[in-house]
Amino acid sequence: MLMVASGGCTAAHLLAQAPLHELTLVDPNRAQLDLAKFKIHLLNLSCQKRLEILGMRPWMLLREKHYAGLNAGAGHRLTLYLVI
User: Fold this and answer.
1) Helices (H), strands (E): how many in the chain?
2) Could you say which DSSP state residue 58 is in?
């Protein structure tokens, strides 16, 4: 699958939810690629730890059940391209 990296939320969600074996992200902004890579890496952590790192506080965890247990571990191939 090929998509624009943007901030990485959609890419992380797809890797956590869909049976993707390869995802290619493109973006003209290197910072967006780095942010997407960071968010995808966070999928290896617990839900609570991910949200803490992203600045969420306990009272903000309204969607915790939705994201609980997501893990895009081994078996996913991610390719990042800087588009200039």
Assistant:
1) 4, 3
2) G
Cα 13 from chain centroid?
6
Cα-based angle 34, 36, 40 (whole degrees, multiple of 5):
115
Q: For the segment 28-69, what is each residue's pLDDT rounded down to a tens digit?
A: 999 999 999 999 999 999 888 888 888 876 655 554 444 444
Q: In the block, which residue shows the tokens 């493109």?
A: 26
Through-space distance between the first and last CA atoms of the chain, rounded to whole angstroms: 20
pLDDT-derived band at 19 (thresholds 50, 70, 90) equals confident
The 2-4 sheet, strands edge to edge: 2-4, 22-27, 77-82
